[in-house]
Amino acid sequence: MRNLLLVFLVFFFLTLTNNAAFADIDSLLTVLNGSKGEKKAEVQLELCKQYKGKDTEKALEFCTIATRFYTESGNEKALSECYHCTGNVYYVKGEYPKAIVFFKDALKIRNSIGDDEGAANSLNNLGVMHRKIGQLEMALEYYIKALELKEKNGANEDIIGTINNIGSLYYTQKNYDKALKYFERAQFLYQGQKDKNGLAATYNNLSLIYFEQNDKSKAFEYNKLSYDLRKEMGDDHGMGVSLNNFGRIYELDNNYEKALENYFESEKTYKTIGDLINQANVLNNIGGIYIKLKNYKKAKEYIFRSLTLAQNLDNMPQVKDNYLSLSEVNFALGNYRDAYDYLKEYNVLKDSVLNEQSKARVEELETKYESGRKEKEIALLTKEKEMEQLSRFTEQNKNKLILNSLSAGFFLIIIIAVLLFFINRQKQKANKVLEKQNAEINLQKVEIQGKNNELGIKNKEITDSIIYAKRIQEAIFPADNFFSDLLPDSFVLFRPKDIVSGDFYWANKINSNENSAPGTLLFAAVDCTGHGVPGAFMSLVGYNLLNQAVKEHQLCKPSEILDYLNVSLNETLRQTYDESMVKDGMDISLCSLSYSKNKSEQENEYTINLEFAGAYNPVWILRKDKNNAVPELIEIKPNKHPVGAFLGEELKSFTNNEIPLKKGDKIYIFTDGYADQFGGPKGKKFKYSQLKSLLISLFDKTMEEQKSIMEKVLEAWQGDLEQVDDICIVGVHI
Length: 734
Prior knowledge:
734 residues, alpha+beta, five-stranded antiparallel β-sheet, 26 helices
């Protein structure tokens, strides 16, 4: 479902400067304060390396300052080290094209000054970057050049990183047996050198191999070894990788609670260090868990967050995975047209990196490297006489070699032709599948349009039934005059996504003992899981339970009402761990306005007190005193758990908040539909921050004017895009 390859597969070496003796960041910063000139630049370069896995922005800041100094001083070796370190920072950030630019700059300088050791490191890292962006052949070419340079200079102990990288390349090609061979060789060599960084990366890679081979026990064992080493070294980026891997292993074992726990921790780590690419990957993984839990609202929320990040980074592999996840969500919700559209987008982006021709080319390059290395060994070990014999042998067999070459070439052409035939055949099969899917969709379209056939008639009957259900829903919900009588200076902006809605608004009144006082007014904005018909069923259940709480049980405190709903909804829907039971709930903002007579004031003056309880959704209060040019926005936060959606744990109670109000205050409660609507020039979410700014700008307008402007803003923002969720906002002027 999701791209399991977008994880940290590869470790590559960082070339250390002479300042490796500095113990940690604190001591480096102490030295920095007392340094000048070249010494200061050396410390800044070392700080860049130290911050790389902890704070990428600080790392780039120190690298930039050091680079500027070495450019002006003409120290080419140190400048190449700055470029190399900057490339490493962009690698950690997941910005691989930028990393390639800096590694190439470092390589160019190192080649010009004859720094073979540094050039080999740059070549190795360029191989890593090209593998990351799917250019496997170019990646292997860089790896081979790095190996040749290292062998030429006798740097046999420095070859392990490249061995590890070639193993990762085979992993990407799903050639797990060959990848395992390289990783095990790297593990043996790292253990001999007691290299913790190398071991941590190799344990990670071995865990991934066993994960793909469905050996959960070994996958967990090696990932734990990797995580423990990275924690010991304070490698935040590496710990984020390991936490993501733990999530995948628990998901494979159907332990979704533990999977989510590790995914959330991994996403938090990536966000802290600024690794947006891996953050997008983990968000998509979280969405996948919610799909399995059938919490499609949450699934869409996290997948869209992942998609937004991926689109901003132009990370097409992640966008591709998001499209596949969205197709799955929409199919589960019965939105077959949307499901097909996302699947079609997924197929368009689906890459062909792992085709047979690419595999053959990689095998050929490795064979050439091995042959070249053996020839060099022969050249070094064979005497001049033996070389002459070899030369004569080559001359005598020249014609035979030419003939063999032509035969091999002809045979290769036949193989390529056969491969192309089978690839074309696979494409034809895929096209037939798409044609079949198109035919099915066209059939559904005919059904929707109702072209005088039985399917059309049936669809019309269903549509008529849903329209009638809408009338029932509208009849049950508060009438406009009832709502305006209770709350005269108010508005309700209510826009269902479909014919019927999973969002609803509610209001009621509890009479005061004091005949002259308005009593207690209750009002709420509620978001039930799902929209359309499933959401509408939930809304009717929720609406009736609210009325029961107030009318039958005489509850008036918002927290007590939500506690009652929590228990009653679970009893009504029989929510347990049983997969056959409903596991849905509601997000809600519930307010009560209580009026008490102000004894010291005029007869008709009252003190107004607001009580609030919420499940995920807050209440906003806008207040503008005489001295305020801009209204103050006061946010009362909700509890971070829903009403209902019980998964076996103990039911959680809700907090009651009391806030004294002032005349002129404006209160807003809402569901997430308005803020989550996609639109604007870049097709992004409207977001709560923009909703806050909009409400603040409308403070001096009447409530009716506010509603009208908000509707126009929403329409302009949405443009031609589909409404993604039900929308409900209630505004009340005190």
